[in-house]
Amino acid sequence: MVCYPNLKKSGQITIPEEVPQALNLEQGDQLKLSVEKLTCNH
């Protein structure tokens, strides 16, 4: 599964709602993240 969360000013990211639902995640579960910076021309 691929998703594109945004980085907030505080340094937090929010995982889209469909990800925990699809993976049946619960509070306290751990995730392994693979990070790649995307370049965007606005």
Report on this model:
The protein is mostly loops. Helices cover 14% and strands 0% of the residues. It has one helix and no strands. The longest helix is centred in the middle third of the chain and has 6 residues. The protein is globular and about 35 Å long.
Order of helix and strand elements from N to C terminus = H
Percent of residues in helices comes to 10-25%
Residue stretches low in confidence (pLDDT < 50, at least 5 long) are none
- Report the biggest beta sheet as strand number plus sense, adding barrel if it closes: none
Number of strands: 0
Rg over alpha carbons: 12 Å
Number of helices: 1
Query: What's the end-to-end separation, in Å?
Result: 25 Å
Question: What does the oligomeric state look like here?
Answer: single chain
State mean pLDDT (0 to 100 scale): 88
The proportion of strand residues reads under 5%
Q: Given the helix and strand composition, which structural class is it?
A: little secondary structure
Shape: globular
